[in-house]
């Protein structure tokens, strides 16, 4: 089962990346992003791809340029997540046969992202539009569109967002903060997975 949960490891360091990636996979999370404003993000991504690339989709977040897309592709990354909708980033991602998850907040951004080939839409920060806003936008999107809520979401409100039409979530500090041990990440990840599975029933 591929759960639509993207673990956001903002601030992760290369020396801990593989251990944290491993406990995420063991908990049932198989989509992992290392934001580009983390310490040596490409080194962390490369290490996780080498050790865990057959078990998870690993890539970068906070990707702002086509140049960064190329850097992530060159170390084996498979997914690109952005906080905004930039056609050049989406196009570069698809040229390299990677998965594209741009940030959106309005219908205009949603349809522009889809027109350029986005694989999923990341509502960010989702607390600004809320479940009601997402539900209204969801009604006009193609039914097969994958939507993710990022920002202000967690195990306590997964069900509310899923009822609004969201398919998945990007979880940052709810799973990982700099300084968390692998055991702490494991605990948070298992709680997220349990809540997600329950909300999807």
Description:
- The chain has helices at residues 14-27, 41-52, 66-74, 87-95, 107-115, 126-138, 158-163, 182-199; strands spanning 5-8, 31-35, 57-61, 79-81, 99-101, 103-104, 120-123, 146-150, 168-171.
- By secondary structure, the protein is α/β, with parallel strands linked by helices.
- It has one domain: TIM Barrel (Alpha-Beta Barrel).
- Helix 1 packs across helix 2.
- The protein is globular, with a radius of gyration of 16 Å.
Compute the separation of the termini in Å.
14 Å
pLDDT averaged over residues: 97
Percent helix, as a range, is: 40-55%
Biggest pleated-sheet summary: 9 strands, parallel
C-alpha Rg, in Å? 16 Å
**CATH T-level fold name:** TIM Barrel
Protein name: 2-dehydro-3-deoxy-6-phosphogalactonate aldolase
Enzyme class: lyase
Family: Belongs to the KHG/KDPG aldolase family.
Subunit structure: Homotrimer.
Task: Give the helices and strands, then pairings.
Layout: E1 5-8, H1 14-27, E2 31-35, H2 41-52, E3 57-61, H3 66-74, E4 79-81, H4 87-95, E5 99-101, E6 103-104, H5 107-115, E7 120-123, H6 126-138, E8 146-150, H7 158-163, E9 168-171, H8 182-199
Parallel strand pairs: 1-2, 1-9, 2-3, 3-4, 4-5, 6-7, 7-8, 8-9
Helix pairs in contact: 1-2, 1-8, 3-4
């Amino acid at each position: 089962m591929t759960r639509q949960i993207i673990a956001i490891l903002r601030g992760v360091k290369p020396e801990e990346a593989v251990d944290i990636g491993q406990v995420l996979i063991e908990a049932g999370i198989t989509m992992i992003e290392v934001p580009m404003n983390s310490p040596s993000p490409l080194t962390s991504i490369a290490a996780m791809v080498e050790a865990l690339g057959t078990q998870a989709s690993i890539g970068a977040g906070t990707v702002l340029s086509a140049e960064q897309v190329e850097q992530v592709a060159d170390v084996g990354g498979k997914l690109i997540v952005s906080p905004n909708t930039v056609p050049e980033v989406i196009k570069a991602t698809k040229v390299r046969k990677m998965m594209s998850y741009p940030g959106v907040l309005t219908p205009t951004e949603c349809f522009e992202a889809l027109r350029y080939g986005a694989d999923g839409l990341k509502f960010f920060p989702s607390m600004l539009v809320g479940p009601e806003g997402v539900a209204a936008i969801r009604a006009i999107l193609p039914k097969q569109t994958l939507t993710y809520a990022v920002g202000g979401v967690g195990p306590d409100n997964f069900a509310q967002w899923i009822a609004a039409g969201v398919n998945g979530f990007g979880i940052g500090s709810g799973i990982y903060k700099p300084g968390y041990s692998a055991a702490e990440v494991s605990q948070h990840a298992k709680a997220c997975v349990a809540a997600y599975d329950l909300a999807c029933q």
